[in-house]
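Hello again, I could really use a second opinion on something today. My current little project is about how a certain protein chain folds up. You're getting the sequence in one-letter code plus the fold written as tokens. Here's the protein in full, and shout if anything looks odd to you:
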Amino acid sequence: MLTKKQRQKISERMRGNQYAKGHKHTDEQRKKITLGQTGKKHWRYKGKYIKDGYVLIYMPSHPYCCQKRYVREHRLVVEKSLGRYLKTEESIHHINCVRDDNRLENLYGFENESEHQKYHMLYRKGKIKEITKSNLIKLPTANLRK
């Protein structure tokens, strides 16, 4: 246990010391710290991250990237196979319902979100079979793989 005199001596030494307890960073210092810990500079950054189960890839040059400049990986996979960018209204379905399984054979394209939701509704009611490799072409909705 420290005496009152010892505590005063320590506090006098710590005055002006930036590493002292309770030190507050200036706005400029905070910006530098933040820049060093975000995106590619972050020590755990691997070029992608997962949000809501979807894998997002950093692609600032993509015309349909979000504000943070990321694009969902499953959209990139389908775009590469089609040789064109997907329109914003086109929707991609994961056949096995695993959001981070972005193999091309696991992805199915719908013309719009309405068609995608229609499929899910009909599937839940038992009026349509689950999408598989064998029945991809038989579905009434347009397949983007053509």
